[in-house]
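Hi V.,

You were right to ask for the full record rather than a summary. Here it is.
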Amino acid sequence: MPDIRYVCLSDMHLGADNSILTKILPGSIEVDPLTPDPVLCQLVACLRHLIEKNESPQKPVLVLNGDILEMALSDVNKAAMVFERFIELVFPKDAEALFDEHILYIPGNHDHHIWESARETQYVNFISTIEPGAALKAPWHTTKMVAPDPVKEYFLTNLLKHRPHRGNTVVQVVYPNYALFTSDEQKCIIFSHGHYVESIYSLMSTLNTMIFPNRKKPTMIWDLEAENFAWVDFFWSTMGRSGDVGQSIGLLYDKMQDQQQFEKLIDNFVTSLVERSNYLPHWLEGVEVAGLKLFVRFILSHISQLESKRLDQYLSPDARQGLKFFMEVPLREQLLVEHQQIIPQDITFVFGHTHKPFQQLMDFEGYPAPVSVYNSGGWVVDKLQPHPIYGAACILIDEALHPMTLRMYNQSTNDEAYVVDVAESLRSGATHSPFYKRIHALVQPDRDPWKSFSSSVAEAVRIHAHVLQTKINL
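Predicted structure:
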């Protein structure tokens, strides 16, 4: 029988007060990073229920596909402590470990700083291999996708060493893409967080082509990252460490959910800015309050159109175009360069970032067949009202690289609608894989641990919506 060999999670946003995997202190809006959240406990219980049914003693690999630690809108110490609570559950002191001791981490935009730290380690490791006084190559901005040499992540690996029984556990970083192949190399699964699907994360490349029209948008992933890494790391990964400024940015995102509060925030900001005209750029001097409000509202409206905030469909037209470009240009080029100019027949692409889980066959130019696209959703509540398009999934993969999605939940106003489900993207004429059939038989939504998990999620969504409303009203 097929065993679970890989478990992919993304967008946990550990440490954030909008993550349902982060516990909120009772009667408060503050996080409790020292206590594991009930949803986190039940999630691990569900995974253990499945993994313990594996026939092989080999432990599955845990793939953390980005935005695991919230480093943009939370303090690093809080994110690190909630990550510790997760590790305590999957690597318990008095029970069998759930996963292999080598954890694979593919950073996203909210934890991009994990990659920056690993990138510096990668470069230091390179320097240690060359002769003293020899010329240094420029630092590179990615790892290989095919058969990479993972970088040992210093911060999280040493965090795990606080647990003596986990002294051998290592967090290994690959960025931004990671590929697995079957032995015949005809089947391939590619993991990527997915932030480059949205154009705002390649803003520096866009500005470069606008200012210098003869310069084209990068077609290679390492060039795309080289042009945009500082922008991604600054605004989307380190803002939470910026003291009061970081907290203000978080409040700004929250108040976007309430038009009246958002307008009030803009009024306060613009009025204050005009009163302190010395802070205005010279090209805005003399602009009246009304005009400045229009300008600020224009900028913020672009932020409010981030893909994770779009309610109309799983992928907006802009995101579909962005995914098309990413698959057909930088990802395909990297695959060709690293895989002897060969594109495998059967490709699955797994990403997160959007917080809207789905599975679908999609056509992309340059690929011999439609690509199975799986999105793992997200574990956050950043809307006041539940919406069924939002939710989270675990992507499970067997030893033959058959993927399937364990849909843990979709938001709802009805507690009965919180039901764990199993799904698989099928090609035309295909039947469900033995792996899917096995997992489907093991997942019984009306029994524990699945039923308890769903009850915990329904309650957690309400709690975190209340936290969001309270913050908006501050």
